[in-house]
């Protein structure tokens, strides 16, 4: 805990610039923190979309209050082909449609001179949940600027500061789904401090402490406390925003709930069973480290990430697990996925032509939850896909993946096909 306090104090004392943009915003211009309004497209997109006049009518801009309404809709169709070994390992995976996400967001600021930002987001779960659980609050947070808009304190239910795949918006990624889920959580309750360092915004630093004991009903003693930190830097970039190299490192102390830890994951899918799973491990905590790199040259990019966990579980031999991926992307029409210096993350593709922006994606990922007495399984997966960023809000994607799962003494093979329709307002 003393280490985390020291990190928070160091962040607060770091060099200030200005304020940080909200996660769902497009990147601000270099040296700025608030995104300027998008100019109208040079010509109408082939796929009709919401006029800017409608967008303006959903916003409130008063001296003491601002409000923006956001909506994210994702729908998938997944299909699978499995061999006999795969069926024996994980059972038959069902072909199915899924409303992957239906999220409603309200965000803005409160105050005139000292502006406090807020974010409230709820995800509709009624497609597959009991009637009393139709909505789940994914984000409820307030963000306070400290001594200047470059340093901010966020309090509430929010994302932890760990792992590139998780800190940003999944809808911005070239790949359709995350793969390093065993090593992070989607949301947690606590506080985090973020800092944009330097007038050129070449570095970011963030740290947080999280514990959801008063929501889950567990006692504080039995609920694990997480502490996370992430540092990023642009080690090389051209000011045109099209050529850059981003590097990052992050750490996570994961406290055990009721002295139990568990690592499990799916092969880049939201509907399959867990292909790797350690089961419950008796232990007090685990340490995680993450390394990340993003190289971009015009329409070409390479994104890579590596996570490792060291689990304090003497009964299981103190196992260590790891996972990584590398993703290659080519936007055929020449657009660049824009980099946001205020969060250390690349945003979604913004097409410029009538026919949108097609993007080819290739990816290799590996996850290994085998170590000593713990045999949670390991898999390799290849993925080839295409995204069509049809407008500034619509995206259609299709991808094929092949998974080799080593578990229970055999190697099983699964072919998966994913079709996605995405709309972001």
Summarize the structure.
The chain is mainly β. The chain contains five helices and 23 strands. It has a single domain, classed as Porin (Beta Barrel).
CATH architecture: Beta Barrel
Question: Sheet bearing the most strands, described?
Answer: 16 strands, antiparallel, barrel
Number of helices: 5
Binned strand content: over 45%
Q: Identify the CATH class.
A: Mainly Beta
- SSE pattern, N- to C-terminal: HHEEHEEEEHEEHEEEEEEEEEEEEEEE
Tell me the strand order in the biggest sheet. Answer: 2-3-4-5-6-7-8-9-10-15-16-17-20-21-22-23
Structural class: mainly beta
Contiguous low-pLDDT stretches (5 residues minimum) are 1-24
Rg, Cα atoms, Å: 22 Å
Distance between the amino and carboxyl termini = 40 Å
Strand segment tally: 23
The overall average pLDDT, rounded, is 89
CATH superfamily: Porin
Shape: globular
Question: Could you please say which CATH topology applies here?
Answer: Porin
Total domains, how many? 1
Helix content: under 10%
């Amino acid at each position: 805990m003393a280490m985390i306090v020291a990190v928070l104090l160091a962040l607060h004392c770091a060099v200030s610039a200005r304020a940080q943009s909200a996660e769902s915003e497009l990147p601000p211009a270099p040296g700025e923190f608030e995104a300027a309004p998008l100019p109208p497209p040079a010509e109408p997109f082939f796929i009709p979309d919401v006029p800017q006049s409608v967008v303006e009518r959903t916003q409130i801009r008063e001296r003491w209050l601002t409000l923006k309404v956001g909506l994210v809709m994702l729908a998938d169709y997944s299909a699978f082909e499995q061999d006999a070994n795969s069926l024996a390992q994980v059972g038959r995976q069902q072909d199915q449609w899924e409303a992957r996400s239906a999220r409603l967001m309200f965000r803005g600021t409160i105050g005139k001179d000292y502006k406090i930002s807020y974010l409230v987001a709820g995800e509709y779960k009624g497609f597959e949940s009991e009637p009393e659980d139709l909505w789940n609050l994914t984000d409820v947070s307030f963000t306070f600027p400290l001594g200047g808009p470059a340093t901010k304190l966020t309090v509430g239910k929010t994302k932890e500061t760990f792992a590139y795949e998780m800190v940003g918006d999944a809808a911005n990624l070239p790949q359709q789904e995350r793969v390093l889920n065993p090593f992070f959580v989607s949301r947690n309750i606590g506080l985090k401090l973020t800092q944009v360092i330097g007038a050129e915004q070449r570095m970011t630093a963030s740290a947080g402490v999280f514990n959801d004991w008063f929501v889950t009903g567990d006692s504080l003693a039995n609920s694990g406390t997480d502490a996370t930190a992430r540092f990023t830097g642009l080690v090389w970039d051209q000011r045109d925003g099209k050529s850059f190299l981003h590097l990052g490192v992050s750490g996570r102390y994961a406290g055990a709930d009721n002295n139990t830890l568990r690592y499990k994951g799916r092969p880049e899918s939201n509907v399959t069973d867990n292909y790797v799973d350690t089961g419950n491990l008796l232990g007090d905590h685990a340490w995680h480290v993450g390394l990340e790199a993003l190289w971009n040259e015009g329409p070409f990019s390479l994104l890579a990430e590596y996570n490792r966990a060291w689990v304090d579980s003497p009964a299981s031999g103190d196992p260590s697990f790891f996972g990584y991926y590398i993703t290659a992307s080519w936007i055929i029409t020449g657009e660049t996925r824009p980099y946001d210096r205020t969060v250390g993350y690349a945003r979604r593709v913004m097409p410029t032509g009538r026919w949108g922006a097609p993007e080819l994606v290739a990816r290799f990922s590996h996850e290994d939850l085998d170590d000593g007495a713990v045999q949670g399984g390991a898999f390799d997966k290849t993925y080839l896909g295409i995204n069509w960023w049809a407008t500034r809000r619509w995206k259609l994607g299709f991808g094929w993946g092949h998974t080799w799962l080593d578990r229970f003494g055999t190697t099983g093979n699964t072919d998966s096909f994913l079709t996605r329709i995405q709309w972001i307002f």
